[in-house]
Amino acid sequence: MQAPVEIFRSDYKSPANWVTEVTLDFDIYSGSTIVKSTLSVVKNEGSTVEKGDLILDGDDSSVKLKEIYLDGEKLNSGSDYTLTSSQLIVHSSCFTGKSSFKLETTVSIVPEDNTQLSGFYKSGSMYCSQCEAEGFRRITYYPDRPDNMAKFTHVKITADADSYPILLSNGNLVSTTEKDGEGRHSAVWEDPFPKPSYLFAVVVGDLGSIKDSYTTTSGRNVHLEIFSEKENVGKLDYAMESLKNSMKWDEDKFGLEYDLDIYNVVAVNDFNMGAMENKGLNVFNTAYVLADQKTATDGDFERVEGVIGHEYFHNWTGNRVTCRDWFQLTLKEGLTVFRDQEFSGDMGSNDVTRIENVKGLRGRQFAEDAGPMSHPIRPESYVAIDNFYTATVYSKGAEVIRMYNTILGEAGFRKGMDLYFERHDGSAATCDDFRAAMADANEADLEQFSRWYTQKGTPTVKYSSSYDPSTSTFTLDLSQHTASAPDNEPFHIPVAFGVIDSETGAELVESQVLHFKEASKSFEFKLSSDPKGTAVPSVMRGFSAPVKIVSEASPATQKTDLLTLAAYDTDGFNRWEAGQKLYTEAIFTQLAGDDVNLDGVYQAFEQTLTSPKISDDSIRAYGLMLPSESGLAEDMDIIDPIGLHDARTAIKKKLARKFQAGVAELYDRLTKEMSGAPFEVNSKAVGKRRLRNTCLDYACANKDTDEEVIASAQLAHKHYFEANCMTDQVAAMSILSNVHGVPEAEKLRDEVLSKFFDDANGDALVLNKWFTIQAVSSKPDVLEDVISLTSHPEFTMTNPNRCRSLIGAFTANSAAFHAEDGAGYKFIGEKIGILDAMNPQIASRMVGCLISFKRYDENRATKMRAELSKILEIEGLSPDTFEIVSKALS
Ligand code: ARG
Ligand code: ZN
């Protein structure tokens, strides 16, 4: 193994030479693909690199160099060029005096052996590519860095015509040839837009597709086509609808139109990540394209819409303006996630989308930022850039973009976006360029705001308030501090703020954004009228900054304040948040073994269950749900996974018992309302299903005696067999999968599990759910189930989705994974060893579940550390996994 090299942001230098134009020729044969490239090279006059050598990246575990010519002259190894395991260096002596030259190389690669799924590889019967971040160097020798933008003027693909009728690459189709004497045919593609190599793509296969078209505002007619394996063509319609909605939304919201005549999307079974925004040829993990009533849950539909939007929006934020270097990744990812979140909110409900996104951030990003992988959204160094496609770069990055929007207002943000494109279209930019465009377009001071790019950790904002009736003055005191990074300088935190009258629910000051820039500060307000009750602050409305927000009022005041906000806050997010905080407090009291007074919780729950003021069923459902274990864990210094699980379950049971009648009534009413209605995917229908399934969950949580266990299993069983869609089936099966110890109920559980498996009829995405639901079960013997499922004929480690569906899902089953005997750790440790040899990207992601051992008690920490040490000793460990494990152990 090559010693892992750490790369630093501060070391960026533009290269000595630029490649400006590329032609590629792919000749695909089973077991060997020949790639010929011609690079037009010019000197970079602005470079400060001392030696003028042409440096081409190439991973010699994948590419084998056959020939190399410079302006037609054959080059010799040693005197003309040097080949290392990762680079081909063409000595400047070969081109001194030339202002430009052409370099031709021929390499061979074996996509059939590429198990890393980076570069050019085979997935089932098709070939496809994944080049971001550094996959292109596994296809051919090239300056594989995002600041080198070149025109790919001629990409020719040749393959067997019968096996591979579809030949795709970026841009426009220039020409095709008919099947020749050897049964081969070819296609030539040209992409008129200069692009970095990470946006290159090729797809070759025998695919089905659906076609549509979209006319842009300025009248360009765009041919839209979505490809998949033929048996899945019936599941592409929702993706196509979402694509057209995305195109329209970006025109309406940002004035951005599509710029080519073709937009192709391909669904691929074996894919490391979600999807990839290659210019004019998106490649998608099947899980984010395929969706229909029978096989996809509402969550899946939502993800398809979100990811289709995400990749489409990248065409401007990523492709037209790309990143200068990989440290700038959040420039395109944070911004594009923000855009896809806004799009999803506009397609459905903004409050619902906001709640879902914040739940996601708290459950994953907060944990990451509290562990050894904590990094600023713009990291300072990396070993393997693939390790930095993180919740921090993506989700916290999106929160940082959202803060510009909050600080500058929607119109100001749009002005900043316009200026950003005016300045940087067609080039590779930095996060500082983006911030400068936002500041300059608005004449705003965003100097201090830059700390969001340089400082890591989740800040905690504490607040207290007081009211002086003699002067009608309301005072809000704020302080900020980052516990995990105590040296942080104060952030510029936009605090969206209002004051609510506890008696009338009236807003006592105009809702506004405070600019909190100091370690601590007091803000004073004159109230519009004296409060009839008390004046209750509503802080961080809409989750206006990615921070933890903590009240310093007495526990009693906090409780009454939260009840006020849960009932009256005009901000939908904070109404929901108030309920969550009440639940959280109850769960932690239960965990501490103290007497829990549930009066407040009952009041909030009842209000949510019955209030006629709540018109959105999703909002009602989310208001009834308890915070997730992963979100709650972030409020504990030392995480007690089993205690937390038990405490949460206990509170849920108490709610279920107390509101048994109300929940049953709502469930029955919804069942009646929905019966016979056609299946639809829109916020109304989704909300109904979400609320009814939440009721089912509470109805089934109420089980102390065997009779109650059987009764809830029967209810879930009935729900399953009456279901008309995957959402309802999954809801019922998830409940049943927890059943254990009561034979009569277990029979119902097993019946549903095997019916689900049979009905899946081999559908890969449905089978993934079957594996996942069993892996996240609360059964005490779940690890045994998981181990035996690893030898199920449908299980394989080579398909990332399948691997994640069982192994990854088990690591998310916190109480089981963190079993005190360490069996969960041992199981995962072994799997990571096997995975690393096959697919380092997947292995290094998986190892994340072991690295936060400092957050656990000594017994667990020791056992987690032991597994990490074993992994570190693996011979030939990938740099990817090495980076994560060594950081954790250092
Ligand atoms: N740019 C892609 C997206 O967010 C993700 C590519 C991730 N690739 C990787 N090797 N980590 O849409
Ligand atoms: Zn992206």
UniProtKB/TrEMBL annotation:
Residues 238-452 form the Peptidase M1 membrane alanine aminopeptidase domain. It comes from the Eukaryota. GO terms for biological process: proteolysis. One of its GO terms (molecular function) is metallopeptidase activity. CDD domains: M1_APN. Residues 67-199 form the Aminopeptidase N-like N-terminal domain. The keyword Metal-binding applies. InterPro entries: Aminopeptidase_N-like_N (IPR045357), Aminopeptidase_N-like_N_sf (IPR042097), PepN_Ig-like_sf (IPR038438), Peptidase_M1 (IPR001930), Peptidase_M1_dom (IPR014782), Peptidase_M1_pepN (IPR012779), Peptidase_M1_pepN_C (IPR024601), Peptidase_M1_pepN_C_sf (IPR037144). Residues 457-550 form the Peptidase M1 alanyl aminopeptidase Ig-like fold domain. Keywords: Aminopeptidase, Hydrolase, Metal-binding, Metalloprotease, Protease, Zinc. Residues 560-889 form the Peptidase M1 alanyl aminopeptidase C-terminal domain. Its cofactor is Zn(2+). Belongs to the peptidase M1 family. NCBIfam families: pepN_proteo. PANTHER family: PUROMYCIN-SENSITIVE AMINOPEPTIDASE. This is Aminopeptidase N.
